[in-house]
Amino acid sequence: MHNVTYTGDYSVVVTNNNYCETRASINVPFLNNPIALIIPKKYHYCPGETIELFGEPDNFGSYQYLWTITNLETNEITTYTTGTISFTAPYCTSQCDFSIQLTVTDANSLCSATADPVTISVLPTPDAPTIRISDDK
Asked: pTM for this one?
């Protein structure tokens, strides 16, 4: 038995006890996995800001995208299926952290790749300042 690990033509020759031969060949193509990469504009956001994330490859070819965003405090999961995603940072009473994963699948070959996860944080809104008027001169 031979393991095929590269694209190319492979042949086999079979000889029986009468020394008769038969040959067969086959071309084995290997398809490359796409590369998945998450590109955040930044890693810390304020409530109400737009979080925009870009996936690579950037919509070239026929790729399918699956973004999985997990709120690490609530374990709530949200998914998106476009190359670029955009959502509003939620209001948090303390820092909210989100784990973001991206899987890219080539629609033709069905080969896929998953990016290393990225964590982004939404920082809490600071308390409103207190303004006092004083008659001190």
From this structure: 0.67
